[in-house]
Fold:
Amino acid sequence: MAIDSHMHINNIVLENEQEYIKDINENHSIENVINVGLNIETSEESILISRENSKFYSSIGIHPLYIESQDIDNLYKLADDDNVVAIGEIGLDNSKNNFDEQKKYLIKQIIIANELHLPVIIHSNNSNKLIIEIFEKYVKPKYGCVFHCFPPDIESLRYLVKNGYYISFAGRITYKNARKSFEIANTVPSDLFLVETDSPYISPEPHRDEVNKSSNIGYIISKIAEVKKMSYEDIEQITTENAKRLFKKIK
Structure:
């Protein structure tokens, strides 16, 4: 069974979240999902969902596009829950011109993750090199890191691999123009990649114009298997094992 290592069920992005929860609970091809917070409110919501649904785990954090009026120190209390497996998603996003503030939030949240012995989930919108500069100049994740929905970048991939950090493939790898993602898939070591849907975003082919669901994880696994000339079952097993190695609290 597969692990969807990054998806979002919360009231910011969905109106009918119970439908999506039911879809996951009834899908026998999905072992677990990591429901990723975007701010304190959605992190709290993720924890509540994970308490009520055994397939769900939570990641708590403040996304760079949601940093306004957020108290980072609330993450300490939220992280006490046994279902919290990571800090994230955190990172940098160049669609907003507030990099100095984003940078402060990123650094502080990596420090919290290190204090709590948790991995981090990184959001990088055209910001791979800037985030790596922060790792080198200020603070590096000590307990694992994944660049989710990895923006294809061979130079940054070399750095991540050298440091034992993970990259995650989402729906874009199924697109016809995804040659750079194919190159990444053929370059990344088998023990350092994950799969995700980023549901409800980035639907894979053949559902590109629809709202994405975790049940679409199979299309991503199939495309990686095709690109790497491996079996579906092998990619499914490898990425499930990798997710459990990174997110050590997954049972």
Remarks:
- The longest helix spans residues 99-116.
